[in-house]
From TrEMBL, chain A:
The keyword Acyltransferase does not apply. It is found in: Cell membrane; Membrane. Signal peptide: none annotated. One of its GO terms (biological process) is transmembrane transport. One of its GO terms (cellular component) is plasma membrane. InterPro entries: ABC_transp_perm/SBD, MetI-like, MetI-like_sf. It comes from the Bacteria. This is Osmoprotectant transport system permease protein. The chain crosses the membrane at residues 84-104, 116-134, 140-158, 194-221, 241-262. Keywords: Membrane, Transmembrane, Transmembrane helix, Transport.
From TrEMBL, chain B:
The chain crosses the membrane at residues 31-53, 65-84, 90-111, 155-178, 190-214. Belongs to the binding-protein-dependent transport system permease family. Its main location: membrane. Residues 27-210 form the ABC transmembrane type-1 domain. It comes from the Bacteria. It holds the Pfam family BPD_transp_1. It is found in: Cell membrane; Membrane. This is Osmoprotectant transport system permease protein.
Amino acid sequence: MADGERAVRVALLDAVEPDGAAGGSVPAVPLTAAAPHLLSVGSLSGGVHTATLPDNCLVRNDWICPLYVQTRADVLLEAVEQHLYLVLVSLLAGALLAVPLAVLAHRVRRARGLTLGVTTAIYTIPSLALFILLVPMTGLTSTTVVIALALYSLTILVRNILVGLDGVDPEVRDAAAGMGLSSWRTLWRVEAPLALPAAMAGLRVAAVSTVALATVGAVIGNGGLGNLITSGYSSNFNAQVLTASVLCVVLAVAFDLLLLGAQRLATPWRRGVR
Amino acid sequence: MGWLTGIPAWFADPANWRGEAGVPTLFLQHLGYSAAALGLACLVALPVGVWLGHTGRGGVLAQQVGNAGRAVPVLALLGVLLLVPGFGRTWWTLILCLTLFAIPPILTNAYTGLREVDRGVVDAARGMGMSEGEVLRRVELPLATPLLMNGVRQAAVQVVATTSIAALFAFGGLGRIITRATGSAGIDLSAALAGTLLIAAFALVVEYGLAWAGHRADPVARARRTAQRRAVTTS
């Protein structure tokens, strides 16, 4: 087994899923790490001995376990809360930075190459590495995760806003100039609304991938639901891993649908187009 | 600032270059997992994407696969699969998971690339008497090459990143250097940053290397280059 981890398995789990132990495909779990969720169940029922453990989905280590959701509601809620915090703050920061950067890149030829080059390079750096890269500055905090996630969403947003701005028909721009609109008023009144669908599409992609990427923050202990996935995995706790995973996907889909709704509201003239 | 001087010291330490946990072994693991997954994903996604794009069918499918690939966290899928009996913590579970995440960009880009070929050009090719296979081979595929390569590049970078995340589940690869250096006891910043530099360098080499290769492989750009060279030599 990798890294000298001893293949100590909880006897109880072996007894419940005898096929799991065969072939050595089941993860090695240190007993100390495997114990917590069983111990706390034991303490609920007043005893720690495996013999006195009640027969419920926690003890059976079922994947789907309502009792887990019930008894760990506070832990789950806390993780969801951190996850939402990570996603919302980083999306907001990313968007606030992306708009001026994209406008600059759209208007100044030299800024365009530089912006796209730098953001592409940042986007290429894997999340695990980017989180660690920021640790010297902001430590093992959620701020580190937020900055990294903001940089990723910034890249997606800048590219999409640029696509939107580039897509504005030059004749429309000429018409605006002919009507006497200043360059900034053209941006605000003409270009921004026309670029909005592409920008919103970018925001949806950024939101969905940020929800997924936030889990990797677990490497520095600030991954929201990712913390539950990694700790659940290392203690062989099926219900926790599956519940946290499903919640992640649900969050991603919820963000996508909310933003789709916002996009419909913000661009009423496109209703019926698609 | 001790961590800063610790980085060159980490690289200079011969212990970090030897054996099971040494940089060469971890790098080869990382490369092996990534290459295997990328190869498998190409085998699956390129033909499907090209076929869907050629026939113009299944556009919704191609888009949805891309969306689903973004919404499911690597950590979630890997964590669940590793605990499912029958999969477990084996190398092929990892490769399966990496492949699943590499398929969407390849598929979506292949589909879009084929679809974006000018219909007029395709009709002209048919009008010249080309068979469907010839249209695909001699017209659509060459013109779609930039986007096909773009998909492969995106997938490659994604796979390299995903493989490093797998280290959170005690798999090998360069991510191991980072996960070994972090834990409940705190963080060995020098070692973690050394691993970070290696992973980032690997990913950047893959990104720019494949971007370059994609540019070289683009038949249109190549023809343009040749024409330019001829123009220069004749003038």
